[in-house]
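[step 3/7] fold_predict: job queued, chain A
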Amino acid sequence: MDQITNEITVQPGPSTDATPRLFTMSMVISGIRCVLAYVVLPFVTPFLGLAPGVGPVLGLVIGVVAIAANVFSLRRFWKANHRWRKPITVLHVGVIILLLVLIWFDLAELLG
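[step 4/7] structure written:
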């Protein structure tokens, strides 16, 4: 009698070890953006004599980078089927919404 063996090939997915590290990195980038927006730029740039438009421009650039880092981290959590993916999704979405509000204020300051 012929013996049939089924081989299951498993495609390697994203490492679950790197997933929390990406989450941490995206939160750090978002935190840096907030520290710059609320501490460094309002108080330090006037002492350095920088133009008033520097803050919003930096805020826009860092905000876009922070959103991209959050989206990348979120995608990694879902691809890795991480057990914390749903609570992390809520956290990431909240951070992205706050960053979008900051971007909106930066754009209003630049254009207004």
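[step 5/7] annotate
The chain has one domain: 18-111.
Helices lie at 18-48, 54-79, 85-111.
exit 0
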